[in-house]
Specification:
Blueprint lengths: L2 E3 L6 E3 L1 E4 L1 H5 L4 H13 L4 E3 L7 H9 L7 E6 L12 H15 L4 E7 L3 H6 L1 H11 L3 E7 L2 H10 L4 E5 L6 H5 L1 H6 L3 E5 L19 H10 L8 H13 L4 E7 L5 H9 L6 H14 L9
Parallel strand pairs: 3-4, 3-10, 4-5, 5-6, 6-7, 7-8, 8-9, 9-10
Antiparallel strand pairs: 1-2
């Protein structure tokens, strides 16, 4: 497993991380997660990313691998009430949410606490930033970050307030490559690529029923990259390696609830950066086809 510097934080992260949404929303059991994450940690995983609003995800991670806390870097996201009293982004609620995340994750401190896709208007008011800065100062997190896309992510990067950025980077979502990643690199921010394989939506023979997948599926019908006609292993490998080849990307988080799937994706990542000619072919196709209304996906 390859490890990369995570910006100015001094942390070294596995190029393939684990995203905790699926285990929370797809009713995984503790036994599922123990098998999945235990084997992945043994194989070199050292980044686990989750969020307060991913249903049972934080609790599952805490119960399954809390006893191995020294083996991985733990990232979570905050901002949504997700069952607590108070509105999203309310400072008092946010303080409670952070403490709840620590209890669920069975830890006193996470390595990265991220604001979860809030607007730049909320960021500019400053209250939520002050809450996570206070959490950092109190030893509840080592570093603070922003997770989001588009104008909001650009403001977060340019503000200089955050150590890390989590944002969508993939074959169907490339605006960030020219617009935001260079600025994040200038500030030595750690960059986490979410949706790094565009949810592999091209593997569906018809438009998926789940609306979450529609934007990428529709885009890829138009982009029609030749490599998408290859088998699943080859096409997923190309998509993942494209993302990991982009400036500043330190780790790409892929979610699954299937034991062994992380290792399969790790094998694709182990092939190294995509050849430059293939990267440029994908970039050129995007430049020729992408429309102004193809906004970054949150």
């Amino acid at each position: 497993m390859e490890y990369r510097d995570f910006g100015r934080t001094g942390m070294r992260v596995s190029v393939l991380g684990f995203g905790g949404a699926e285990i929370g929303f797809q009713n995984a059991t503790v036994e599922d997660v123990e098998a999945l994450l235990g084997s992945a940690l043994d194989a070199g995983l050292n980044v686990i990313d989750t969020a307060e609003c991913y249903n049972t995800s934080e609790e599952l991670i805490g119960r399954a691998v809390g006893h191995r806390r020294g083996d991985y870097l733990l990232f979570t996201k905050c901002g949504h009430s997700a069952g607590l009293a108070g509105a999203d982004w309310d400072p008092a609620m946010l303080q409670q949410s952070i403490d709840r995340s620590l209890r669920r994750l069975q830890t006193d401190c996470v390595d990265l606490l991220q604001l979860h896709s809030c607007s730049k208007e909320i960021l500019q008011r400053g209250e939520v930033v002050e809450v996570i800065q206070a959490a950092r100062d109190a030893g509840k997190t080592r570093f603070i970050g922003y997770s989001g896309d588009g104008e909001d992510a650009l403001w977060a990067v340019e503000s200089g307030l955050f150590d890390a950025l989590q944002t969508s980077v993939n074959i169907a979502d490339q605006e960030v490559i020219d617009r935001t990643l260079p600025k994040a690199a200038e500030r030595a921010m750690g960059v986490i690529a979410k949706r790094p394989i565009a949810n592999a939506v091209w593997l569906h023979r018809s438009r998926p029923a789940e609306p979450y997948h529609h934007a990428y599926w529709d885009r890829l019908q138009e982009l029609d990259y030749p490599f998408l006609q290859q088998d699943a292993a080859a096409s997923i490998g190309t998509a993942l390696r494209f993302t990991l080849s982009q400036q500043g990307v330190a780790t790409a988080i892929v979610g699954t609830r299937k034991p062994g799937r992380w290792q399969e994706n790790a094998a694709y990542a182990a092939l190294g950066p995509l050849p430059e000619a293939e990267i440029q072919a994908i970039r050129a196709r995007w430049a020729a086809v992408a429309r102004p209304d193809w906004e970054p996906q949150v």
